[in-house]
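Kindly inspect the following:
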Amino acid sequence: MPRAAASPADSIGQWSLTQRSLHGLLSAYVRFYQGARWEPSTIPAEGAAILACNHVSVLDPLLLVASNTRVVSFLVAQEYYDNPWMRRLLEQTYSIPVRRDRRDVRALLQARRILEEGRVLGIFPEGGIQRSEIQKGVAWLVRESGAPVVPAHVGSVNQASSDLQTWLRRQHPLLRYGVPLHFHRDADAAEVLGATMSAIATLA
């Protein structure tokens, strides 16, 4: 009889040795090399949550991961998953590859499953670094899951001409968290998006 697949880890007490080691290395990099500062995370200690943050550089997800003791699974552009080394790292957070050239329904369904399992989903509503068009995926996920939205804002950092240059440049980023937002599952998409982006902006 085949062995049942292990449930994905969530809180730090459930992490594998690999996950603990990577989290430690990542935390050391952003805190000591980048000189990053962050406020205490407002993500609930348990249960589903949508972590919504502005997106200014490739450092943003690293800061969000380092500042939390729960696994944050992200919707990640497919091109990062196409890199074998990046894929190995992303798989440790159960992140989801998403195609940005079209509406990726498969990725959204996987994201909904993460929330159904009572875990944390990280999402950048702008859909990409320093983009102005707000994606509607957050509103759909709120309607489908009823999960609270935790706003976060990254400041004092900029994207260089390449990801490597951004990782090497010391910028002293600042990460701030806001109060979780609770929406009715029938809330209008415009209401959800407007309130979420406003909450992120107030943290700047």
In short: The chain is about 40% helix and 15% strand. Residues 26 and 192 are 32 Å apart (CA to CA). The mean pLDDT is 92. Residues 13-202 form a domain with the Glycerol-3-phosphate (1)-acyltransferase fold (CATH 3.40.1130.10).
